[in-house]
Amino acid sequence: MNEPSLPIAFLSDFGLVDEFVGVVHGVVARVAPEVRVIDVTHQVRRGDVRAGALALLRAVQYLPPGVVLAVVDPGVGTERRGIAASTPWGSFVGPDNGLLAPAVAMVGGAQRIVSLENPRFRLPGDGVTFDGRDVFAPAAAVLASFQATLDDLGPDIPAESITPLLLPLAEVGDNVVRGEVWWIDGYGNAETNVAPDDLRALGLDVGDAVAVGIGSVTRVMVWRLGYGESGELGVVNVDSYGMVAVAVPGGRADEAFGLSAGVPIGFGKPAG
Amino acid sequence: MNEPSLPIAFLSDFGLVDEFVGVVHGVVARVAPEVRVIDVTHQVRRGDVRAGALALLRAVQYLPPGVVLAVVDPGVGTERRGIAASTPWGSFVGPDNGLLAPAVAMVGGAQRIVSLENPRFRLPGDGVTFDGRDVFAPAAAVLASFQATLDDLGPDIPAESITPLLLPLAEVGDNVVRGEVWWIDGYGNAETNVAPDDLRALGLDVGDAVAVGIGSVTRVMVWRLGYGESGELGVVNVDSYGMVAVAVPGGRADEAFGLSAGVPIGFGKPAG
Amino acid sequence: MNEPSLPIAFLSDFGLVDEFVGVVHGVVARVAPEVRVIDVTHQVRRGDVRAGALALLRAVQYLPPGVVLAVVDPGVGTERRGIAASTPWGSFVGPDNGLLAPAVAMVGGAQRIVSLENPRFRLPGDGVTFDGRDVFAPAAAVLASFQATLDDLGPDIPAESITPLLLPLAEVGDNVVRGEVWWIDGYGNAETNVAPDDLRALGLDVGDAVAVGIGSVTRVMVWRLGYGESGELGVVNVDSYGMVAVAVPGGRADEAFGLSAGVPIGFGKPAG
User: Fold this and answer.
1) N or C: which end of chain B has fewer CB within 10 A?
2) By the CB < 8 Å criterion, does B27 face chain C?
């Protein structure tokens, strides 16, 4: 193996029942047999671009430098572009719908973005488009194996013309931080868009009681380093990705408190 | 790594809950550590040979030449044979129950078929048979790593003695094409066994209205290049594998029209 | 690739929806790009250490010698230790909660066990612990790639101080063997902790009628080599891992007989 090659990290909403993920692996292996593909997850909720973008954002710092191939693409078959972006970390390939934007920003921003228009690096197909297979997989494979560069894939497009992903920012007030739930993990823990420093700005710290407002209900929970002790109704902690989260010791916070992605949540000092 | 080796593409109905898929990967890695295994899918419906055969048929053209290892095997433990077939594309290993037949035919047909009877290439086991692990995985691994050839695996069997898979053909009449649903993908799109040329034979083309008969109901849909526009009840298109399909813009055709694999469907020119 | 490296076999209860499995693969690839990771399964029931230990026990004999990375860890964030054990087969990395114990015993027992305390081989993190990512994955990666030895990972701990997994033994009486169900596989077959020799000790053999007691009901089934014939209510057989099991020809034994992991089951000679 004298050819250098980079690994591809592959994320999608294809699910694992159909053969779509296997077919994309096959296309990569045909183009670039030596390239390794790491499956990040393929069970992003169908068409949920924000959920896919957040999963990629959480994962990217743990992935080996190389190429990200991400496909959550409810607009497939419409006019939306396919893009490849180069960053200080490596390359990103996927639809221009905001999916890549937060991870690209986290690793330092795009140095250059091209529109995937060169037919030489597309598989032919005369039915409805399956761009994951026919456009994005070949582009990722040739980039990972240095068979092509961004120059070869298509024309430059200005960074400001690509579709951003508007992630809601937490609102830090004098007495309360208002944010929302970003993600419920498989254990039922609720990650929010609130950073620990936002709580510290209110004078709160680990060990303190925190008023947690969900809907019209405010509950007092303790800010724990871990998941707390059995018997606690719920705890506030910082999750393994560094964001403020709500957990239930030995249980599921989503079920206990009616939390799901997008639900508003507030944190403050308990009254009195 | 001086030894040449081919990739294995692995499809099964083992599911991903039990450790079966991992064990097969382990067996391959013990026999041939350098061989790469691509998982096509392992969530073929349990024992559904036709669904497995169709998934393999769709996938094979996108897989790197090498060895296909396919196991959907409701007859495990009965007299059915295990076989390996060589084709212009590569080798196929699996049960002789029709699973391999359509994909083998698509890549040019079997040049030679053997019955997997050589005990040297089987793992010993004294319980009920797990041929995926004990027979098919070792055979695929030695073929992929050139440790053995078909000659070594067992005696030749005549191509006409193997079990075919009878895939229903669409019936093209003067005014109507009668076919059936082959596959519902994870997005709810319904692929049929009707080819676009069958519709063209009726004088239909992209942009035309098409009468679609399902059960006792006939609906008029437009033949679209893509998934159509929100608001359309349903559309006819050619899916990414090149077959005529029925889709619902932003929705699921299976739910909207009561479609599932095997349901008869007819296409014709609208009356009047 | 001049560096030698061993494969990692990875088992967890992370599921495949979140990006956790992909992130662990990413961490391994960052530390040791050349190491291959085989996924055994990631759908062990959440927090079910015994189910994970049994899956690993069944799988280990089929895995290539190397490193096992196993994470079913309901005690994450508590005082339980992370450990690495060397055995004649290879190394095992995971939580000290009994998960590794049966597989370690099966491959010859631990030659040495260390506590994973060296911060050099941990990823930093200031939120709740995700030891699979931050502790176990890096340890497995450096062992598999020979970048470190057990000496480097932490202090020795005595084998007798680690947490065992108490697997219930079958009780062989004069006329009956009392055991329990260990595992329901995806096809509904019920594996027990009874060995075929336990039945033979009662004078039973393949082809004999066997009285099978589940709850207050005793049914007579035949000990079959395979899954039996359609029409049989149920059969006793030896499963592909060599343990006595109960199956229903063409059906599911779990549903037919109310079996699940942990349910007591007895085998004896039929009366009369």
Assistant:
1) C
2) yes
| Nearest Cα residue in chain C from B79 | C226
SS3 A31: helix
ipTM of the complex: 0.94
pLDDT given for residue A229 in this prediction: 86
Q: Choose among B106, B142, B145: nearest CA to B122.
A: B142
Contact B128 C227 (CB under 8 A): yes
Give the tens place of pLDDT for each residue, B125-179.
Answer: 777 889 999 999 999 999 999 999 999 999 999 988 889 998 889 999 999 999 9
Indicate whether B231 pLDDT > 90.
no
A56 interaction partners in chain C (CB closer than 8 Å): 19
CB contact under 8 A, A33 and B64: yes
Distances (CA, A) of A94 to A10, C34, C42: 10, 26, 27
Choose the closest CB to C16 out of A11, A16, A187.
A16
Say how far apart CA C50 and CA A183 lie, in whole Å: 29
What is the distance between the alpha carbons of residues B127 and B136, in angstroms, rounded to a whole number?
Answer: 17
Q: Residues with Cβ < 8 Å from A21, sequence gap 6 or more?
A: A10, A12, A14, A15, A39, A42, B39, B41
Question: Helix or strand or coil: residue C148?
Answer: coil
Buried-exposed string B203-224: b where 16+ CB fall within 10 A, e elsewhere: ebeeeeebbbebeeeeeebbbb
- Quote the pLDDT of residue A2: 47
pLDDT score for B2: 47
Q: What does pTM read for this prediction?
A: 0.95
- B235 interface with A at CB cutoff 8 Å: no
Helix, strand or coil, per DSSP, at residue C30? helix
Dihedral angle over CA of B116, B120, B125, B130, nearest 10: -30
Give the angle C142-A34-C4 at the CA atoms, nearest 5°. Answer: 30
Facing B22 at nearest CB: one of C59, C237, C247: C59
Which of B15, B26, B129 has its CB closest to that of C62? B26
For A131, nearest residue in chain B (alpha carbons): B240
pLDDT tops 60 at residue B67:
yes
Structure tokens, A85: 């972006």
Q: What is the pLDDT of residues C111-145, one digit of tens each?
A: 999 999 999 999 987 778 899 999 999 999 999 99
Instruction: Report the sign of the C-alpha dihedral through residues B40, B45, B47, B52, in that order.
Output: negative
Of residues C216, C181, C221, the one with CA closest to residue C204: C221
Residue A218 has pLDDT above 50, yes or no: yes
